[in-house]
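A.,

Following up on our hallway conversation. Structure tokens first:
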């Protein structure tokens, strides 16, 4: 597999910041700048960016969390989640790890994020630290509105193409550009093997929608789906190490009539499958009726719920309607039940929502879901972006991130059109890193503005390499600049040598 992780091409190196607890050593990207103001950046690439790291997909990644989990089980017994520890007032090594990671070198006592703050946010249900004990390869990270806005990249094969190797390559490609979590949404053949390869080789939490595999097990026949098949699938994926599950437990029989009157009906795959199952069987959603059993299972592994929005609006005309908000209220009830079992939970959100209707989504989610982190798909602020839906969704993502959403699910240029390829993944991830970073700036996340300040100084000083290396896509920025101009220029080809405004300013 091609090694795409060479930091030396970005004027950067991998460094580790040690914590006070055993084994806590947080990898960061150190960018060396021409003005000597070296900067530490959040890094999602795990050991891949270590100078001498040899990629071996058959061996997999080192197990950085294994000892922590084993020692905890020996001391406190099994069935204990990060939420349980937080509620006991205990700071785990994972909590110290994410505090260091979030600070990105900021050590101002007034603004820095502390392990105590991480613990308290988890205890209050306002943040989660996804940590399936069977996924020791994943580096700890936190999702919550007091922390950096995170982004998820979806990968996965479909019945129409792509191999296991391609999917692992896509996962690594997504983390290279900054994906904080990866969801494996495979629906085609070899689901189990594909997921295994992704889990063993990806240093970020992995999410799935277990319904997809459950449906494959009954050959795609919704009428043959049963709670037993679904539960077996959950056990299989818990054992493999999936860190969070999208579970569409909030869509109920009473919501379906309103959804069927919409312009685009039900656009969530999981939501449409459950709605069809309920209509065939004339029974309530088995994910809702068996919810406490799911909690008991997830608690054993510390798998988090990502409560699915099966009724998210699929177009502007359907935004914020009765079906969507009816389901959101149920998701709030389910969040309280999962907390009762010490299971961590986030809530999924829309979808297609015009800008003036986004705030209502955030306000209702905070109120009805009691502060549980919100995880939204965009939202897309218009329906007519075909070929450019990474942009329609990043606009909504930046807005809702600013208002309090904790994680954004990326959308690629191919949304609504086709399965994304590698270049689509890169563009989608970078676009959403920008949306998330814009939200971090607006929320005043400590440390977020430093990168912008250094970029601006580099721009004014015409330090081109520093400008490239401080961007989210140094390779692209470098290529674009040099397409029309040689190195060492005191201007760029946009205004040209005689009209460079910054050059003129400096001469005043
Ligand atoms: S030429 Fe124009 S765009 Fe380029 S650096 Fe100067 S002011 Fe900026």
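Then the amino acids I'd put at each of the 508 positions:
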């Amino acid at each position: 597999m091609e090694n795409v992780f060479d930091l030396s091409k970005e004027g950067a190196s991998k460094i580790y910041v040690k914590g006070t607890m055993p084994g806590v050593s947080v990898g960061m990207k150190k960018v060396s700048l021409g003005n000597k103001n070296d900067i530490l950046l959040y890094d999602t690439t795990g050991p891949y960016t270590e100078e001498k790291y040899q990629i071996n997909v058959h061996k997999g990644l080192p197990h950085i969390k294994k000892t922590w989990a084993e020692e905890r089980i020996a001391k406190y017994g099994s069935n204990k989640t990060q939420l349980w520890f937080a509620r006991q007032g205990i700071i785990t090594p994972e909590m110290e790890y994410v505090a260091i990671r979030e600070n990105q070198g900021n050590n101002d006592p007034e603004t820095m994020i502390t392990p105590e703050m991480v613990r308290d946010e988890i205890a209050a249900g306002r943040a989660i630290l996804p940590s399936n004990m069977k996924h020791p390869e994943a580096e700890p990270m936190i999702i919550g509105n007091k922390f950096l806005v995170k982004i998820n990249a979806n990968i996965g094969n479909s019945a129409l193409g792509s191999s296991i190797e391609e999917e692992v390559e896509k996962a690594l490609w997504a983390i290279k550009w900054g994906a904080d979590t990866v969801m494996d949404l495979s629906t085609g053949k070899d689901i189990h093997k594909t997921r295994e390869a992704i889990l063993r080789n990806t240093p970020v939490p992995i999410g799935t929608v277990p319904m997809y595999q459950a449906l494959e097990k009954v050959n795609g026949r919704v009428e043959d789906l049963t709670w037993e098949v679904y539960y077996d699938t959950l056990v299989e994926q818990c054992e493999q190490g999936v860190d969070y599950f999208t579970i569409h437990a909030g869509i109920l029989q009473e919501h379906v009539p309103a959804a069927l009157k919409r312009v685009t009906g039900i656009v969530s795959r999981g939501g449409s499958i459950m709605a069809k199952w309920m209509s065939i069987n004339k029974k309530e959603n088995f994910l809702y009726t068996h919810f406490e059993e799911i909690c008991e299972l997830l608690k054993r592994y510390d798998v988090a719920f990502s409560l699915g929005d099966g009724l998210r609006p699929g177009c502007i005309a359907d935004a914020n309607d009765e079906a969507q908000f009816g389901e959101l209220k149920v998701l709030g009830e389910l969040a309280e039940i999962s907390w009762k079992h010490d299971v961590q939970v986030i809530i999924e959100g829309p979808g297609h929502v015009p800008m003036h209707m986004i705030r209502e989504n955030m306000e209702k989610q905070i109120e009805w879901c009691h502060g549980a982190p919100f995880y939204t798909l965009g939202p897309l602020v218009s329906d007519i972006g075909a070929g450019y839906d990474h942009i329609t969704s990043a606009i909504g993502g930046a807005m809702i991130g600013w208002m309090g959403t904790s994680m954004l699910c990326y959308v690629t240029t191919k949304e609504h059109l086709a399965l994304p390829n590698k270049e689509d993944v890169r563009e989608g991830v970078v676009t959403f890193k920008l949306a998330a970073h814009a939200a971090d700036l607006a929320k005043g996340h400590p440390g977020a503005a430093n990168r912008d300040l250094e970029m601006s100084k580099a721009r004014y000083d015409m330090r081109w390499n520093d400008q490239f290396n401080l961007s989210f896509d140094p390779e692209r920025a470098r290529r674009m600049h040099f397409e029309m101009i040689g190195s060492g220029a005191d201007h760029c080809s946009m205004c040209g040598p005689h009209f460079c405004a910054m050059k003129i300013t400096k001469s005043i």
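Residues 386 and 417 are 7 Å apart (CA to CA). Curious whether your intuition agrees with the design.

B.
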